[in-house]
Amino acid sequence: DLHSFPTRRSSDLFVTMLLSSAVHAAQIENTLGVFSSFKWHELYQAAASTPTTPSQLAEGHWLGSTVRYLINCATVIVVLLIFGAITPASVLVLLPVAVLTAWSFGNPVMAWTALQHDENGQFSIFSRLVVLPLTLFSGTYFPLDVLPGWLHPLGWISPLWHGVNLARILTLGQAAPAWLPFVHVAYLTNEEIGRASCRERV
């Protein structure tokens, strides 16, 4: 019976997997996606020779990435709905939270990538030494409480922790102070840095 499949624990896992997939999509879009447009395919240089402004280039990348985030997250959500792992009402929360999380992670990454002039393996190192630890230590697959106290700030600075915690509060009824969702939203919506830096590089 598909409707008896999800439990509280499995629903929690599915929510975290959705947010994690959004972050990994943002990583790819804003590392190799941005760098290839600067260096390998020179799409930004070609566009810069037209009346297109740097601001429009950065906005175009951001909008294109957002469409791909939506497709990625919507695909995962449809599968979860088919198997009864989430409710239709929770989609109204999960989709925007997932996209906000992707923005919050992806835009600083876009800023960093825009400063790279050569590819010397730094994107692979970034994936292994930044993205993977943030995924593991953001309260996604196990709570921060089981980690040593000195590791907790690593979770707190992670957009994934804010996104996952917000999704749990809004869809699973996780206990939290009334002010905490507003902190999460404020953190996740602070996403202008990437586009500003990309405009400077172009």
Characterize the structure shown.
This protein is mainly alpha-helical. Helix content is 72%, strand content 0%. It has ten helices and no strands. It has helices at residues 8-30, 32-40, 43-48, 54-82, 88-114, 122-136, 152-156, 159-172, 180-188, 193-201. The termini are far apart. The relative contact order is 0.18.
List the helices and strands and how they pair.
Blueprint: H1 8-30, H2 32-40, H3 43-48, H4 54-82, H5 88-114, H6 122-136, H7 152-156, H8 159-172, H9 180-188, H10 193-201
Helix pairs in contact: 1-2, 1-4, 1-5, 1-8, 4-5, 4-10, 5-8, 5-10, 8-9
Would you list the SSEs in sequence order as H and E? HHHHHHHHHH
Radius of gyration: 18 Å
Task: Decide which structural class fits the backbone.
Answer: mainly alpha
Proportion in helices: over 70%
Uncertain stretches of 5 or more adjacent residues: 1-5
The total of helices stands at 10
Q: Main sheet?
A: none
User: What's the pLDDT, averaged over the residues?
Assistant: 82
- End-to-end C-alpha gap: 54 Å
Overall, the morphology is globular
Sheet-strand content, in percent, reads under 5%
In total, the number of strands is: 0
Key features of this structure:
globular, mainly alpha, 202 residues, disordered N terminus
